[in-house]
Structure formats: structure tokens, C-alpha cells
């Protein structure tokens, strides 16, 4: 007996299938399978074996997509938050929110960081996407010394992104404990701001 075509699920296409694969990768990581195979990923996503390759090309690219998702979450939460008036205070707020996102699922996020830190034939977008968060936090540079403001707004976002990535690298390697990540990330940001701000925040080792 022929199956009623109305009961056959429509194929998932485009962005929807990409998100389905990414969601499946997250579930596998939550289950402690950082070394999952693409075959396991396809099975978890309920798609054909070729689909993850067709959509992303490699497991590394999937991990970069997971990194992008984290940065998108950081940016969305920062945009929704009540913004303090000074650039330095906004940067610290962005640091705190970014750290909170990473600590929500430390096991998953350490695995993601480990993957995006490995060599790849295709460069990721983590630096440019992270830079956008710090551009948003600095905004017009209120509180930064006027003669240096233009230079600071051009220089600081990329350096803040580099500094935060550095803290995450030591954290993902196990050299920086969960409860120390926030304080160290804030100290890095304060140190960078110190060269430009009229009143830069003092690094607080206690967080």
C-alpha cells in the first residue's frame, strides 16, 4: 500500500538544516562526545551522512559555527542590557556577559575552544565577530581621553577580542579555573583601557 504523501516529512533545507546539524553537535558535546564522528553527528541530526559535509565541509567548520553561536548570544544579551554611560563600564559589562555565556556550559565551550584553536585550511571568523562585540561596547568612547579617542576606537576592539580569546585559551586548557576566568578577563580589559581612559577601572583580582 502506497504511503500517503501528506504523512511524509518535508526535507529540511537551507539554514534550517544547518541549525539542525549545529543543534545535534551541541547535544553530542553535552553528552561528553567531543570526539564525535561525522557519521554520529548525521545520525544525531537525523540527516544523511553527506549532509554535514555538504553544509559545513568539516567538523572544524561546525565547531566554528558553534563559536559563532556563542558570540551571537553574547552580543544579543549585551544589546538587551541596560547600558552604563561610560565606555569602560560598558566594556566591563560586556566582559561579564561574555564570561557568563562561556560558564553556562563549560564542558561544551571548552571543547569548542579546543577545536577552533587548531590549525585549519579555512580561517574562522571568531576574531572579527568578537571584535564587533567590543565595538558595540565602546560605542562613542565616552570617558576616553579626547585626544586619543579616535585612536582608541580603532585600536581597542581588536585588542580586547585578542585579550579575551587569550583568557579563554588558558581556561579551555585547564590552566584557568572557572571561578578565575571573570577576574582575569576583567583585568585584561582594564589594562588595555588604562592607556586611553580618563578614569580606567582598576583590575580587581577578586572579580
Describe the protein in words:
The protein has helices at residues 14-30, 38-45, 51-56, 59-80, 87-104, 106-116, 126-138, 149-172, 178-194. With 207 residues, the chain is an all-alpha fold. The chain has two domains: 1-57, Arc Repressor Mutant, subunit A; 66-194. The termini are far apart. The model is unreliable at 1-12 (pLDDT under 50).
Spell out the blueprint of helices and strands.
Elements: H1 14-30, H2 38-45, H3 51-56, H4 59-80, H5 87-104, H6 106-116, H7 126-138, H8 149-172, H9 178-194
Distance between the termini: 67 Å
* Largest sheet descriptor: none
Strand count: 0
Q: Overall pLDDT, averaged?
A: 88
Using brief descriptors, characterize the structure shown.
mainly alpha, 2 domains, 207 residues
Question: Quick gist of this model?
Answer:
With 207 residues, the chain is mainly alpha-helical. It has helices at 14-30, 38-45, 51-56, 59-80, 87-104, 106-116, 126-138, 149-172, 178-194.
